[in-house]
Amino acid sequence: MPTVGRGLKTNKNIKGEEETKHHEDSSHRSRSKRKNGTGSCEDVNKNRKLDEQDMDRTSYILNMTEDGTTTGSFEAKKGKSYFVTTYASIDSMAGLTLWPYQLKINAVNKVDEDAKSKITKNKPSKPLKLKKNSSKSYSATGYFNAGYENGDSDWYVYKSTKTNQVTLSLDAGKEIDGVIEVYRNGKRVAKSDIYEQGDKEILNLKMKKGTYYVKVRDSKGRASIDSYKLSLKLK
C-alpha cells in the first residue's frame, strides 16, 4: 500500500476539507478495483517525522466517488502541526497507475446558515428562507458544513397559499448524496433519497395550503467545500 505524507501547520483553528483526485483510464478500471484514501494526524511530538506514535492516531478517509475522488474533513487546531497522507491499493494483480494525483486542502470555516435555529418536534425556530425568482420558482444556496457529529442539515420554510404540485431539487457537490425531507405540522409528509452520490435529488409532491419545512442533508453526514442549490418549482 504506497503511502505519501505531507506536513501541515496551522496558525488558527480550522476545519479542513481534503480532496484527492486519482486519474484512471477506463480500460484499467474495468480490470481492477482501485481503493484510494487519505489520512490525517497531529504531529504529537513535534519532530516533523511521521512515526509510529503519530500513525496510531491517524484518522482515515475512504469516501471515494465514481470518478476516483476521495473527500473528507478533519479539524485542525491553532499552533498544531499535522500530517496528511495519501495512499492507494488494488484489489487485483494489476499494477498501480502511472497517472499523477492531485491533493487539495481547503479551510471550511464557513458560518452555518442556520446555526442559531433550534429544532423542536421537526419545527425549526429560525428556518432559512427561499428566494423568490418568479411566481412559480424559488431557490436558495448553502453549504453542508464540517464539524457536526451526525452531519450538517439545513431547514427551509415555504408557505403554500393554495394547493399546488411542487418539484423540489437538490444539486450539490460530487461527493454528496443528497436527501430531501418535507415536514408539515411536525410530521414528515415526503422524502426523497433515490439518486446516487453526485446526482441531483428530485422530489415531487402535492402541497396544500399551509406552512412546510424542507430539510436537506447528506445521507451519510458528509461535508463539502462546494455549495448546494435547493430549488422549488410550482407546476
Give the secondary structure arrangement, pairings included:
Layout: E1 3-9, E2 14-22, H1 26-31, E3 34-42, H2 52-55, E4 59-61, E5 69-76, E6 81-90, E7 101-107, E8 119-120, E9 123-124, E10 128-129, E11 131-134, E12 137-142, E13 153-160, E14 164-171, E15 178-184, E16 187-192, E17 201-207, E18 210-218, E19 228-234
Parallel strand pairs: 10-13
Antiparallel strand pairs: 1-6, 2-5, 2-7, 3-4, 3-6, 8-9, 11-12, 12-19, 13-18, 14-17, 14-19, 15-16, 15-18
Descriptors for this entry?
single chain, 235 residues, mainly beta, Jelly Rolls, 5-stranded antiparallel β-sheet, 2 helices
Can you characterise this structure?
The chain has 235 residues and is mainly beta. The chain has two helices and 19 strands.
**Number of separate helices:** 2
Q: Strand order, main sheet: write it out.
A: 10-13-18-15-16
User: What shape does the CA trace take?
Assistant: elongated
Structural class: mainly beta
> What string gives the helices and strands in order?
EEHEHEEEEEEEEEEEEEEEE
CATH architecture verdict of the largest domain: Sandwich
Q: Work out the number of β strands.
A: 19
Give the CATH class of the largest domain.
Answer: Mainly Beta
Helix content: under 10%
Question: CATH fold name of the largest domain, please?
Answer: Jelly Rolls
Biggest sheet details: 5 strands, mixed
Distance between the termini: 53 Å
The averaged pLDDT comes out at: 81
Radius of gyration: 21 Å
Low-confidence runs (pLDDT<50, min 5 residues)? 1-7, 23-32
Count of domain modules: 2
**DSSP strand content:** over 45%
